[in-house]
Amino acid sequence: MPDITVVMSTARDDYPLLGLPETHIFEPLIKSLNKQTFKDFELIIVDSLWERRKRTPLKDANFKIKHIWPKGSPWRDKRMFHSANSYNTALLHAESELIVKIDDCMEFESERHLAKLWNWYNEGYIPLQTFKYYFKGEPAIYSETLIDEMIELGNFPADDVRVLRHGWSNEVYKEGEPVQDTRLERFMSPSKVVNHEWYYGVSSVPLRNALEINGYDESMDGCRGLLDVDFGSRLEMSGCNQFLLDRELMLIEHINDALSKHAIKRRIPFLDKYAIYQLNRKKFRIRANDILFSEQDIEYIREESIKKDTYNEQWFNYWVKNQRTFDINEMRLEA
């Protein structure tokens, strides 16, 4: 049994790295994992395009890889966001003590990355990683020209372009400075103990604790966002709360194109996921996917969702009808 499972979920085509048209999506990660001084790990790739992948660099890995299709989901089948389902799929197949979660199009900057993660874990912490962006194989430096070039090279839907221009504005990043994790600006020390609001998608969790809270909340599928903060919140409520953000646990994220239309067709949010997150906290729901929402809960979520310009009654009703409950430990036995 390995000590660490690195988990990556993806719904992107083979060559999505902007400015690197001949670099396969898996290549940077495989190369950086091959160089790790810590060797007792496995990699799980949960791939929403698993059936379409023809050629990959996975054969070049010097470590164990599980390249798998996400388990069945009403949102996967509708080609809508199904990240919780994908990460729960990884939890079904993980064999290690510590789960290390990263986003796609990422690689590890340091050869000692996993070794340092493991050391922090053995000191009693839940280590959180951080990241910086690369463009065309070099550190991304913020400018309006950078944004324009990204949009020109990519195939972003109009809504993604608007989000990109807003999220990458000069109110977030400074002209001429590196584009990186904004959490780094909030402290100056090498590391910092933080709360669940700092629990981003590039975090870690002991497998036993992930199973105790019954995985990621699949009621949040269908739309994007808030999944990891909710997961961190439920970990924190369960007593697993020694989150530590370390500046040296740095990942490189290669700026990438939009999600594949073959995996994600509808991107517009119809649901207020913040309402679900708030309900989980208010009612101290540590375990996800354990019970169906009550009529009162559904009405609250509906009222909050209606406030959003993108609310859609048809998809909301589909979400209500497709609530699911399960015990992830029982599913692991079956898997």
What does this structure look like?
The protein has one domain (4-140, 178-334): Spore Coat Polysaccharide Biosynthesis Protein SpsA, Chain A. Helices cover 32% and strands 17% of the residues. The strands form two sheets. The protein has a five-stranded mixed β-sheet with strand order 3-2-1-4-9. A hairpin with a 2-residue loop joins β6 and β7 (138-139). α8 (227-237) runs parallel beside α9 and α9 crosses α10. The chain has helices at residues 27-34, 74-77, 83-93, 113-122, 144-153, 158-167, 207-212, 227-237, 273-282, 295-306, 313-321, 328-334; strands at residues 4-10, 41-47, 64-68, 98-102, 106-108, 126-135, 138-139, 191-194, 204-206, 243-254. The protein has twelve helices and ten strands. It is α/β, with parallel strands linked by helices. It starts with a strand and ends with a helix.
Question: What are the SSEs and their pairings?
Answer:
Elements: E1 4-10, H1 27-34, E2 41-47, E3 64-68, H2 74-77, H3 83-93, E4 98-102, E5 106-108, H4 113-122, E6 126-135, E7 138-139, H5 144-153, H6 158-167, E8 191-194, E9 204-206, H7 207-212, H8 227-237, E10 243-254, H9 273-282, H10 295-306, H11 313-321, H12 328-334
Helix pairs in contact: 3-12, 8-9, 9-10
